[in-house]
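Please go through the sequence line and token line underneath and see whether the fold suits the sequence. See right below:
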Amino acid sequence: MRNLLLCILILISPGLLSRDSNEDRAEIEDLRKRIERLENQNSDSGKERKLSESESTGYSSPMKGNLPKDFLKNLQLIPEHKKRVTEGNSLWISENWKLGFQLRPRLESIYNPLFYKYSKDMEKTYVSQNSQFYAIGDISPSLAFKITFQDTRIWGGSELSSGLSDGRYGLSTGAGQIYTSGSGTEIPVRNSLDLREAFVLIKQPIPGLSVRIGRQILSYGDGRILGSRNFNQTGNSLDGVRIVWKNSYLSSHALGFVLSDKYNSGAILSSNSTNSSNSNQAYLGGIYNTIHVSDLFSIDLYELIRSKKYIENSNSALYDTQNRLRQWDHLYTSGIRITNRTDSKVVKSDLFLDWTLEAAFQTGFTGDRIPAGWDSWKQEIQGKPLYTERVKYDSGMAAFQSGLTFFGKFRTGIQYLQASGDPNRSDSRDSTWNPLLSIRRGAGEFPGFSAGNLGSLYSWRNIKSYSFHNSFQDSRFGKFYFIYTETYKFKEQDGWYNSGGSLNGNASTENFSNTRYGTSYTGGKRLMTEYDFIYQKMIYDNLSLWAGMAFVYAGDSIRKVRNNPSNTDPLQRYTLKSLSNYFFFQIQFAI
């Protein structure tokens, strides 16, 4: 174009110049300016065409309008709400970037969690809040990432600790506020901002393979073994690596995570990742496989190991130090889960009968050594047993669930859960089921098909639980749950374990050394009877309302301790208050 215009100018310029007038020169100058403007316009349109071609060949995320459920494990949403988040285009600021936000304030009220009428704090009522902001970047066919900031606090938890002047209402983090779980266990709340997730996803370095590195949330099956525990305001998240190989028939996950580290003295990690009092390093690893047999059912097979290194006591005798230096706590969990709920935890609307069967076994060694049981002479050297033996893990669990769904709205079902107990905690076998991660709200995700234990008065240890589930869903009125549960001890000689997994010492009948015929032992198997009522309703597209209440009655195992005429202290002979209540009300906003 430029050459053509110049040729025209050359052809016409001699005639114009020959006129030798100011008017002719002005015409020539005007023609040259018009040619330059035309060249600039052509150049700009060429750039626009190149830019448009570049954009058309750029990467657009397939997650937009179809966000994978694996990227929403930080949220606990009812199915309608989850559908809006996964399929909606809200806060997709481009073809590759998604922002999200959650706000969940919750009022909770707990009354008489220990069935003890002399409790110093019989009733506990507080409002806690979980706030999350997350960003997802699906930046290329090879890489994606997610980062989630989470703040968990109690309303009013930023009060100054002194409380002696008007300054007690000043804003301050880390004021040492606590809230108490359903079992009466006090749980510190740091009132600070933390990372719930921060991981990068390497997508298909080879076909079918992906690698996720960083802080992430693990949730498999019904969440009994590894779950997000999102109903708890802090939830679970772990630091490590997950390698996934997947095709249409098999999904295989190789896991490697650090649970705690000896350098974490300042508790800079999440609540479930701080070191315990007797170990300074802990790790979780293993394999979790899902075999997709057909649309009718699938099979999960898993093998997991949790390893803890004991802290050496520098002041102990040489004999004990050498034993402790060479010992680790290795817990192996092997399990199988078979279900026709092939879409994770959701029962499809056209599925009339749903069922799930799961069983797992635990082996390994605790790292403790005790006097050998076969040494009837109990020989000692310098006050230490001459012969010792290692304490072995020997525990198991089983779960069965089934339900019928009518007209896509009403479901009625049954559930049986058992987690082994230890009839003799003084011998070389640890037979009480050991949850891999802390459980503060029953067994499994809430309020899915493992719902129950809404009052959160017991952990999934040494129990047999029989429950009857009913739910009804209506598009106008919301969803209603009613759950009736009877909970027994698996072994009456073992104790009652609170929602954090620790033993409620002397709060129920128990017998540490299995002395069945001892004069001080009184048996009791039934722990409690519980009635749960739960309600959920979508208010707006991104806002839901949740409410629930639990009525829990003490069973004979608790009654025989609280009402014990043979107690040496007259004031402690009749201390039972048989009813415990729990209530919660929350607003869930997520987008």
